[in-house]
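During the reporting period the student researcher (J.K.) took over the structure-prediction task from the postdoctoral fellow and processed the backlog of single-chain submissions. One of the processed entries is reproduced below for the supervisory committee.
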Amino acid sequence: MKPLHLVIALSASLLLPAQGGESMDEMWGGESVRAGAETDERTALFRDGKYGMFIHWGLYSHLGGQWKEQTFYGIGEWILNQMAIDRSEYMALAAQFNPVDFDATEIVRVAKEAGMKWIIITAKHHEGFAMFQSAHPFNIVDASPFGRDPMKELAEACREAGLGFGFYYSHNQDWTAPGGAGGPEHNDDGSPVTFDQYFEEKCYPQVVEICSNYGELAFVWFDTPGGMPARHVKALAEVVARNQPTAMLCSRIGHGMGDYVSLGDMEVPLRNRSGLWETCDTTNDSWSYAWYDQNWKSPREILHRLVSTVARGGTYLLNVGPDGKGRIPAMAADNLIQAGAWIKEHPGVIYGASPSPWGQAQPWGDVTRKGNTLHIVVFDWPSDQRVFLPGMRGNPSSAELIGHDGRRHALTIGKEGSWTVIEAAEAADASTTSAIASVIEMKFEEPPGIDQTSSIHPNIQSQLFCEFADVSAAAKRRIQWMEKFGEWKFAVQVSDWKPAGMAEWEVDVARAGDYHVSLTYKGEGRPVWSVTTSEGARIQNQQAATAVYHTYPIGVIRFEEPGKHKVSVSLVDGNASKSSLEAILFNPVN
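J.K. obtained the following structure tokens:
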């Protein structure tokens, strides 16, 4: 899953420096899962529910991203590791941790109002502090003045509300337990310690506890297996199977023993994926509470990422980080609930929905399918309020815009060449369209055939990603990086250009005419790029380059005829090893 090899890797948590040449794939757990998992009846909640709440909450929440008046501007749950806080000093913080405002019923209310179908919470993160009653003394009941088991309260509240419940457990990393990955290398008495000791004395017994003392679990979400021996992973999988036979395991348990794939943190893929998989994401930048992090995703952004995940065939797990008092930050809760109100108006877009038959997003939004109905979700209306659908074979029986009040407004369906066009100008006014996103239901007698060729729309900017390009004499790779610690970015890009290097797309152009062309790339200096079409049109230009991806205008190119064309991009001059192309954009001149 992760072809890139980096020194540091992370998940909804991060990883330790890789040892023994382990790849990101191996450290994160990879994409392999056990055979037959997809057809189990127990997958129904995950497969059809599509949307769950993730909660990162622990002793680190008490610090909130700050240690001794110094702020750590990275994901808050890594503060112990990244600020090199003394282990004993950190553990002593438990005596101050008293989340008196924790209210399991309120958290469940927010999740339900948000439209989520389950909650997964950190029972123990890499810091080693157990947020549940445990025989190991470093836990919230025995080591803090709170003296309650919040996990028991939350499990019961979820059951009463009809939500699934699950635990996150860091099985490999433990920074305060001797022998745990990243933890002390000696016992407190100075004697040497092994990972086996940590596993036998803390990890395995605690997994038995969480699988035995909290009723039925829908998920056990292990994380960052790294170089954990397969025998230990197998033992944990067997504990879960024995005590929680209906619980699902994500791929981050390691060694192919999961039931579904968990992609990289914050990763929403551009292309449809098969099988059972999830994207785990967070409502701001940090997973756990950080006092300074107010970069909240808006209701629109939450829904856009949720719809995009479902449209690619996946499930969305969205995180909140309660503060040291146990409260979900107010803006995070408000934005989730606003997004949930939209979901209540359009449940068929999300629950039980199948991925888009186009295999990728469209410039105006995205599509999910349920039976013979396409849910066309418009986030950005074209200026003429005409929604173009490329390469669709089959005649829809109806298209209706769903208004705020639930009323349906019939729309006219037309054709322009091989494209299907929904005429929404008369119906799409302020009373029927949503400020977040509008939904058009298009029905068919039988599912339509779709030509998945990339497309250039005539009335809205179209973006063609290198994910969908054919590449020659250059390298097409998926890369990932952190823009600040724990904030992951992903791109499928083309680099290492040879003299005849080229990225080429087959495109379906709806309408002949002139289009502004821009390229998204990064690099050094002032590279010169050339864009050509199969009709012989060519533009070439020099622009600056930066260390991060940026979109630069290149020029105007003309398509003389509508229909199928080839479009190619080449690097004519510049640093071939540093020039990294991510996408080409076409914006109609008129």
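The committee noted the following: DSSP finds 13 helices and 32 strands in the chain.
J.K. will present the remaining backlog at the next meeting.
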